[in-house]
Amino acid sequence: MSRLANTFETLSQSGRKALIPFITAGDPNPDFTVPMMHAMVEAGVDVIELGVPFSDPMADGPVIQRASERALAHKMSLRRTLEVAMEFRRTNQHTPVVLMGYLNPIEAMGYEEFANAAARADIDGVLTVDLPPEEGENCAALLKARDIDPIFLLAPNSSADRIQKMDAIGSGYLYYVSLKGVTGAGHLNTDDVETKLKEIRANTSLPIGIGFGVKDAETAKTLASLGDGVVVGSALISKIEANLDDLGQAKQAIFELLTSMRQAMDERSI
Amino acid sequence: MTEKYTMPDARGHFGPYGGMFVAETLIPPIQQLNAAYQQYLDDPDFVAELDRDMQYYVGRPSPLYHAERWSRELGGAQIYLKREDLNHTGSHKINNTIGQALLAKRMGKTRIIAETGAGQHGVATATVAARLGLECVVYMGAVDVARQSLNVYRMKLLGATVVAVESGSKTLKDALNEALRDWVTNVDNTFYIIGTVAGPHPYPAMVRDFQSIIGREAKQQCLDATGRLPDALVACVGGGSNAIGLFYPFIDDKSVAMYGVEAAGDGIETGRHSAPLAAGRPGVLHGNRTYLMADDDGEIIETHSISAGLDYPGVGPEHSWLKDTGRANYVSITDNEALDGFYALTRMEGIIPALESSHAMAYAMKLAPTMSQDEIMIINLSGRGDKDMQTMARREGIEL
Question: Strand, coil or helix: what is B199?
């Protein structure tokens, strides 16, 4: 069983939901990332999505785009992101790490070389924002052959047959983009999410992580009651951005936000 | 070989290029767009409305003008100019925006968005939006807003909202990123009019089809004027919509050579250019696989050209295919050479070309003398130079 499947299985047995933070590798500098990943694990997260910086992050809002820009200013790259993941893995063998980014860095490296490098870095999942299943079968097969889960996005306007397509080609979990928009947008409607989740559940048995627009413990708690995991990204990166002159403070603020989310998600709801 | 050219395939692939590389939220609207486009492509009412607009609103057909004095001066091929500069709004861009706006109307969309580099596509979009009473938002890199202020004013006059994009390199690629973000947020009521033959399928094929009126007219006009097909076609290539528009109807006419002219900026060897076909590598950006200017890590490199309309790190996927198959030749022209082309056409023929089109003129000045006087070259004069008066005056030390 893959590390991701195992994580969701264990959580499910104890009636808990996955807390999945997203940070961009190398933001605001390459030394920040690995200690931050360990601190997030201490705060109680279950899976880490590690953003691969890209010059043109079309599906992301301004907060994550600026994170990419800060990381790229330090020459962060896909190769160096894999090194970051490898370093994290040296002292943590249980927390799944999912790479999240755009296709062009993978194209530049070559699909097969990338799949091999990701396997060497003990990466658990790969989510490529601009690689829908229509174009992604080859890449997904290369990853699966190395026990890496290809993770796909679902959107509010994804039809039943598309959900089935993701179910067939994806593994690990599916990432439900809870709103039409970019990351960090502010108009999340939980009733809509609840309705859509019913349709998604009817078409896949994969765990569902819900992301985009998760700002605080309360939203995390609500979404946790609907999905199997909650992804939080822009809200964390905002803490980095607000504390660029005091990164110890940034780390502490992220730790506290994740701790509050963990607690809220673990409270038994009625 | 008599095999007919049929690219792209049903999924929008030109060989390894093209395709539909977008985030999941954009898949449904792109599929809807493709369905609508396939439906109306051959719909008699739609075609009739488009033809009427092309004739009475755009002013088509645009003339094919024999530049006799310039041909004599260069001492080689007979040069004919396809006068897209005479279209309403001053460039070939309106051929496409009319087509897409009519499609938007039939699809019931009430809001139009667009990206623009030089501002020509933005003006052409704002123009059709004004005429159809549609809300219009144009994204433009902050650098381009500064160097094309005349077009910014035109768009505002036409009722469009112009958003200056401050992210990344603040040019065309960043405007495209921002327009995609708007689209993903407002997919229900918004139609995204992409200005070039790039983006996810069906845009490269759809924009080509709307622009290919250029080549269809030119072919007939050349036959009428000279009794035969041209020997060479020359057009500038940024995203490549005016070039594909001219080339496409000639692809199966193997005797017709095609030259796409990229912007070499300060020179290919300096790295400061916008010539992905000459010096780039295949990759994926803005929804399609194509030649790109990217570094070894796959990060997109900042581009440079004197002309905002060619300042883009990618190129339409069909051009990548035509390059690899050898059907078209891709060459490049530096900023300084383009200026020579600009002045030559202005002084020789009394026609002031856009800086984008000046790249095609400059290459023609190299190519024409190598051809014989009974050979025929058609250059796509894709736009007029009015928008570049400030840039040119500033270079000459004059403040307007």
Answer: coil
pLDDT in tens, A123-147: 999 999 999 999 999 999 999 999 9
What's the CA gap between B184 and B34, in Å, rounded? 17
Residues of chain A positioned with their CB less than 8 A from the CB of B200: none
**Contact B188/A61, CB-based, under 8 Å?**
no
> To the nearest whole percent, how much of chain A has pLDDT over 70?
99
Pairwise CB contact (< 8 Å): A134 & B186: no
Q: pLDDT of A80-139, one tens digit each?
A: 999 999 999 999 999 999 999 999 999 999 999 999 999 999 999 999 999 999 999 999
pLDDT tens digits along B166-192: 988 898 999 999 999 999 899 999 999
Considering only CB atoms, which residues of chain B are within 8 Å of chain A? Answer: 11, 19-25, 27-29, 167-168, 173-174, 177, 180-181, 184-188, 281-287, 289, 292, 294-300
If you ran DSSP here, which 8-state letter would residue B299 be given?
P
**B23–A65 C-beta distance less than 8 A:** no
CA proximity to B258, closest of B287, B218, B291, B290: B218
Residue A90, SS3 per DSSP: helix
Examine the residue annotation and report whether A60 is marked as an active-site residue of this protein: yes
- Kindly report the nearest CA distance between residue A128 and chain B, in angstroms: 9
Answer whether A56 sits within 8 Å of B173, measured CB to CB.
yes
Percentage of chain B lying above the pLDDT 90 cut? 93
DSSP 8-state symbol, B109? -
ipTM attached to this prediction: 0.94
What is the value of pTM for the model shown? 0.96
Q: Coil, strand or helix: which one is B266?
A: strand
Residue A220's H or E segment, with its range, is helix A217-224
Top CATH class of A3-269 equals: alpha beta
Tokens describing residue B73: 């001066």
Distance to chain A for B137, nearest Cα, Å: 17
Chain A positions contacting chain B at CB under 8 Å are 53-59, 61-62, 65, 69, 72, 77-79, 102-109, 129-132, 134-135, 152-159, 162, 177, 180-182, 185
**Smallest Cα distance from A194 to chain B, Å:** 18
Tokens of A187: 């108009």
